[in-house]
Amino acid sequence: MTTKWSISVPGSTANLGPGFDSIGLALGLYLTLDITLQDHWEFEHSSEHLPANVKVEDHLVYKVAKETAERYKATLPSCKVVMHSELPLARGLGSSASAIVAGIELTNQVCNLQLSIEERCKLASKIEGHPDNAAASVYGGLTIASTLPNGQLELINARDVDAAFAVFIPNVELKTEEARKALPSNYDKAYAVHASAHANMLTASLLIKDYERAGKFMEHDLFHEPFRANLIPNYHEIRQTAQDAGAFGTAISGAGPTVISLISKDRIDAFVAKMKPLFPSYDIKAVPVDTKGVQVTSE
């Protein structure tokens, strides 16, 4: 009988500019859970990016695991969960989505639900509220997704992203709900058509691997970045400096405040080295694209 599991979930960036609430990209920064069956629930955090003390009943992973078990009429056994995260909270790197994916996967494993990847992605997207970060964390690679009016989730997954990314992570948080309050309640028709065209061009450029053009449209979002820019520390300065240093494009990562740049693979190391002394208050790093999505080992 299996009594121990290890779950690894990649973080993610959402939108890449105009791909608002539909485009996600899995990043090589991970949330890991080591799970052992025992007679009571216990969470142990072993990372500076996780809060020191959280009540079990308030823990996002536990709440999602419990909701998943109830949804599939399964009995959720008690577990000890040791968590480590490379994802700072409320920075636009998919920390909440990764926890949601982890909670679903925990129940999937300990209750032996044998959920398909499509079922896990659909549930994670429903709980998260949109399918960008959640889909990327489940599948890995680049995901482009949309939910139809009947609830059906349609998704395209491309794992062979042949480009590099650098993230600029500030030492400040920005809650998604706060960032959403900055957005207009509606858009003029002509404005929305223009914004949608930019999103279409971004998507097409990514799928045909025209990363230079993709970077151009990353910087021409009209859906959210013009309204969130003032919430992001050094937003305009980082974009201009990154462009001068050879980045194809720079955008807010998810709701922010992290900013992400798209760069050719052969220039990424020199780019990061150049940026670090210019923005010393930021954690700037090259981040690979994760191509595997959520992974599980057991014993």
Automatic annotation (TrEMBL):
Pathway: Amino-acid biosynthesis; L-threonine biosynthesis; L-threonine from L-aspartate: step 4/5. Signal peptide: none annotated. It catalyses: L-homoserine + ATP = O-phospho-L-homoserine + ADP + H(+). Residues 60-141 form the GHMP kinase N-terminal domain. Keywords: Amino-acid biosynthesis, ATP-binding, Cytoplasm, Kinase, Nucleotide-binding, Threonine biosynthesis, Transferase. ATP binds at residues 88-98. GO terms for biological process: threonine biosynthetic process. InterPro entries: GHMP_kinase_C_dom, GHMP_kinase_C_sf, GHMP_kinase_N_dom, GHMP_knse_ATP-bd_CS, Homoserine_kinase, Ribosomal_Su5_D2-typ_SF, Ribsml_uS5_D2-typ_fold_subgr. The keyword Magnesium does not apply. NCBIfam families: thrB. This is Homoserine kinase. The lineage of its organism: Bacteria, Bacillati, Bacillota, Bacilli, Bacillales.
